[in-house]
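Re: Re: ligand-bound prediction request (bumping)

Still looking for help on this. To restate: I need the protein modeled with flavin-adenine dinucleotide bound, output as structure tokens. Inputs repeated here so nobody has to scroll up.
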Amino acid sequence: MKALMFLARRFVAGTTIDEAVPKVRELNDEGIKVTLDVLGENVSTRDLAEKSGDAYLTLLDRIDRDGLDANVSLKLTQMGLDIDTDFCADVVGGVVDRAAEYDNFVRLDMEGSTYTDATIAMFERLFARHGNVGVVLQAMLHRTPDDVRTVLDRGGRIRLCKGAYKEPPAIALQKMPQIRERFTELVPTLLTSGIYHGVATHDEKLIAWTIDHVRREGIDPASFEFQMLYGMRRERQRELVREGYNVRCYVPYGTHWFPYFTRRLRERKENVFFVLKHLFKK
Ligand SMILES: Cc1cc2nc3c(=O)[nH]c(=O)nc-3n(C[C@H](O)[C@H](O)[C@H](O)COP(=O)(O)OP(=O)(O)OC[C@H]3O[C@@H](n4cnc5c(N)ncnc54)[C@H](O)[C@@H]3O)c2cc1C
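Reply:
Sorry for the wait, this slipped through. Here it is.
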């Protein structure tokens, strides 16, 4: 497990907030904004959910105290969604309230499709409170064009990504060309909505397509941000900043890194090669 943690450090900024903060500063110094994620998902007790909520309160205090250019991302199942929806709303509501005190922002990550309805409903419930909360939508899901309309009608900020969870054909597109096509159908709607959204991908085809679209349509580059994950395409993140785009890096930390790490391995064979190469070197 220790060897695996060593390898996971490519994608995870450490196990504690103190380990993560210097990485955030390094990114901020390069003009890259951050969203911090305290790793965790599918907690089974109220106590664990409340502890997750507390970890985010501490994190928001720290972001403010240290003057970091960072907001936070969280998973609802880490805050008790599997236990009780109202309880989860209380825990996440506490985080959203604290973020509002600092004029900061909370992004609800999107998990597997069994949670899509509940996540959008929670977004609507919390957004009505302060407006400092946004949600993630996954281009691969058949339902996503409708969900984009729902969230835009409320005035919410969307992070658009492909989707990291394995879903059946009845629920989601399976082939990369179709997922890319859907992504490129949704980006123009987001970028002309007058709301600040995130285009979250490392896929050069989609990044280049978005830049072409923005130039062609005369869209202000400051009106949206590209988002990428910690440990992925760092040089491309710097380049985009140099080209005048907003870039936000998703920086996860914490002890519950294993499911996040396996998702990163599953979605890209080069990440597996990276792990194997280092295992054989040892
Ligand atoms: C900031 C952020 C937040 C996310 N949040 C969520 C979430 O809440 N819920 C969720 O389900 N998913 C989330 N995801 C994950 C997302 O859904 C995808 O699973 C993940 O980003 C992989 O898809 P991709 O578009 O980045 O590129 P991929 O489909 O992995 O790659 C496609 C192509 O892009 C290029 N490419 C990709 N990576 C690299 C690289 N490192 N170097 C060079 N070229 C590369 C290659 O040409 C590759 O063939 C998030 C992703 C990001 C970036």
